[in-house]
Specification:
With about 200 residues, the protein is mainly alpha-helical. The protein is about 70% helix and about 0% strand.
């Protein structure tokens, strides 16, 4: 339990360190596919943008439900009726999407592996906390809602839901992070193409 809580506390600084390291790689990585005159790079970028769009909408959807309720309520409707961790699910799509916009399968795979190595312990730590807070209600919830991969067929939504608009507004920037990341990646690629920024390697 202590190790899980420690992993949860390290999530933000560790994530920032990994993002910084990847940013250096991406900054000086030229497109292998463009160098070879292949269109696969454009296809990877398009797929990445689709995943980022899904991730952004999904994170906004999750925030609509969770903001103002996270610390005292067991959420079981909306995105939380199809997955116990929908925010992390949509974040994983966004992270992979950003990797794809780099037009590198190696960068994409690295991002996916880092996500897979970092977040399971965080999820387990959070679920331990929720189990302690909600007892039997949590056990009943766990019995029919998957931990990560959504079951869209069991979506349930209330007719009305009270939203906390001021807190929700403060979380809008978090949901748009992947869009900004993709924009930065595209700017870097433009600088590479124009010769303003050197590409020291071309990762496959």
């Amino acid at each position: 339990m202590a190790s899980l809580a420690f992993a949860s506390r390290l999530r933000i600084p560790l994530s920032r360190a990994l993002v910084a390291a990847l940013a250096v790689v991406i900054l000086f990585n030229g497109s292998y596919w463009a160098q070879e005159g292949l269109m696969l790079g454009d296809l990877l970028t398009s797929l990445g943008l689709v995943l980022i769009g899904i991730a952004t909408v999904g994170r906004l959807w999750c925030n609509l439900y969770i903001v103002g309720y996270k610390n005292n309520t067991l959420l079981t409707t909306g995105p939380y009726s199809i997955s116990r961790n929908p925010l992390y699910f949509f974040s994983s799509l966004g992270a992979v999407g950003v990797g794809l916009t780099c037009e590198s399968l190696i960068v994409t795979a690295t991002i996916a592996l880092l996500f897979a190595a970092t977040y399971p312990s965080v999820i387990l730590a959070e679920e331990k906390r929720l189990a302690g807070l909600h007892g039997q209600a949590w056990k009943d919830y766990v019995a029919h809602v998957p931990r990560f991969w959504p079951k869209f067929g069991q979506l349930t939504e209330p007719e009305r839901y009270t939203v906390h608009p001021q807190q929700f507004r403060r979380h809008l920037l978090d949901a748009l992070w992947f869009v900004w990341a993709a924009a930065i990646v595209q700017l870097i690629q433009t600088l590479h193409d124009s010769g303003w920024l050197p590409g020291y390697w071309h990762a496959f």
